[in-house]
Amino acid sequence: MYAKLYAATVHGIDGLLVTVEVDISNGLPHFELVGLGGSAVKEARDRVRSALRNAGYEYPLKRITVNLAPADVRKDGSAFDLAIALGVLIASEQMKTPATPTLILGELALDGSLRPVPGVLPMALSAHEHGFDQILLPEKNQEEAALAGLTVLSANHLKMAVKRWSGENNDTHTQVELIETASDEQMSDPQHQEVRFSTFPSKKKRTFENAVQTPDFCDVIGQHFVKRGLEVAAAGMHNVILIGPPGSGKTMLATCLPSIMPELNIEESFAVTKIYSIAGQLRSHGGLIRTRPLRSPHHTISQSALAGGGNQIPRPGECSLAHSGILFLDEMPEFSRAALEVLRQPLESGEIIIGRSKQTYTYPARFLLLGSMNPCPCGYYGSKGQQECTCTPQQIQRYRSRLSGPLLDRIDIHLEVPRISIEEISSRRISESSVDIRKRVEKARLIQLERYPHRKNFSFNSTMSGNELRAFGVLEKEGRQLMELAFKNLGLSARGYDRIIRVARTIADLDFSEKINSSHVAEAIQYRSLDYKI
Questions:
Q1: Is the Cα torsion angle 204, 207, 212, 218 positive or negative in sign?
Q2: Angstrom distance (rounded) from CA 381 to CA 389
Q3: What is the pLDDT of residues 87-135, one digit of tens each?
């Protein structure tokens, strides 16, 4: 007998439908699995056999052949277990094939219970695009799958999955709707869209939110120049590096940056949630991620862990996990040169391309790079009234040269972070809160959304193309003169020149100015301190 079911795998950050064909024929008892499956897929043979027997079903003592199509695409993971088990039951006539086309995902334990699998959201979205209306999977994955708009049949055991799919007990169907909660003027703004989770027949509603507590800028004493630079960076998604001695507050300022970032819109939220789903790092409730991620890897991280990779089927790395958010590299010169140079591709193109012998995988990696470093190996170079620097000029140059010129060219803003004085510490003045700063950032963000209506995502000044620079980066006469002086005196590259104009464009947006005047250019030039200190 023959059975045909549908499962899915992950290719890059997208789901790929897989047809699971099961054929049972006369012959010596044997289980053959074909279709270019990885080791975890091939091990499904033993999991399925034990799960069927322990769940009370008969395991056919015949020749069983399972094919996973398309056969030329490598597949990995344990998400095919449930589809294979149900295929065996159908082919052995222990159950009938339901009429509704259903995507089937789930890992089987030896006792027949179902375990959750990663990457459910992209696979469910792919099924929805191909006309599927229903998905069957473990209970712990149901809320994640519901985000795709499918009817969800969830189960915690193989026997329950059979009942759900055959229609004997379908009281846990779920689906998700996108609804508008904004006013009439805000209906077109994707940031005001909400996700509602409904369970039938109870009609229970649940809003997915990320309640992440981040430090506030009002907790940071002094450092007004640095805060202004981070405000500009957040408004235009410009890459930043903080340079200062130990104890000056670089890490504290970095952790405050997410509090002034604009919220993810629906498209960005789905993209980020898909990446975390594939990486197996989606929180247990499975809701949409609505706040911009902040990733802070250790300086011992490898190239593959930073960019993504793997032996056969790559997985997203820290660059992709920081997509639409912040990648914070504390003590940046301590990272290996090879790992830092990996950043050049995503900083320029916004994506990571990983090549394998038979396939190429592409992961989105458009993030704000936030780095920090000491001014010298001992950390006290240029610190007035503090501990004296003991480093020689050669040591300082060697330390700073760990960051290559091409990498620094891709960092828009360089901020000096001095130690705060005793007067500032003792005064305890209340600084401007992140809420107030965020309001200005969001207004500048709306200006950029209107300026680049053709872009679907990441419409920030930091990603202006050459044509957009010529159209929106026009300088007034005094501004052009300042840029000419900066180009000659700082030895800027063409990329550095363009990045100063992009930063000046963001500063003008924060001032609600259509034109870029000399004050905007002057402030942007101040944020290039490493150009004339290295």
A1: negative
A2: 5
A3: 999 999 999 999 889 999 999 999 999 999 999 999 999 999 999 999 9
Strand partners, 19: 6, 69
Q: What is the pTM of this model?
A: 0.85
With a CB cutoff of 8 Å and minimum separation 6, the contacts of 158 are 51, 52, 55, 57, 82, 85, 108, 112, 113, 114
Instruction: Please give the angle made by the CA atoms of 359, 362 and 365, to the nearest 5 degrees.
Output: 160
To 5 degrees, how large is the angle CA 128–CA 132–CA 137? 90
* Structure tokens belonging to residue 301: 């991280």
188 Cβ neighbours under 8 A, 6+ residues apart: none
> Could you say which DSSP state residue 248 is in?
S
Domain ranges of the chain: 2-172, 181-207, 217-430
| Range 130-159 burial, b when 16+ CB lie within 10 A, else e | eebebbbbbbbbbbbbbbbebbbbbbebbe
Contacts of 357 (CB under 8 A, 6+ apart): none
Quote the DSSP letter at residue 421. P
Question: Do 461 and 236 contact (CB within 8 A), yes or no?
Answer: yes
14-25 and 30-34 strand pairing = unpaired
Tokens representing 252?
Answer: 């504290």
Answer CATH for 2-172 from 3.40.50.720, 3.30.230.10, 3.30.1540.20, 3.30.9.10: 3.30.230.10
Residues 6+ apart with CB under 8 A from 213: none
pLDDT in tens, 243-290: 999 888 899 999 999 999 988 888 899 999 999 999 988 865 557 888
Angle at 22 between CA 73 and CA 17, to 5 degrees: 35
DSSP codes joined into one string, 175-201: EEEEEE-S-GGGTT-GGGEEEEEEETT
Give the separation between CA 444 and CA 355, rounded to whole angstroms.
38
Can you name the residues that pair with 152 across neighbouring β-strands? Answer: 135
Name the fold adopted by 217-430.
Rossmann fold (3.40.50)
Strands 368-373 and 326-329: parallel
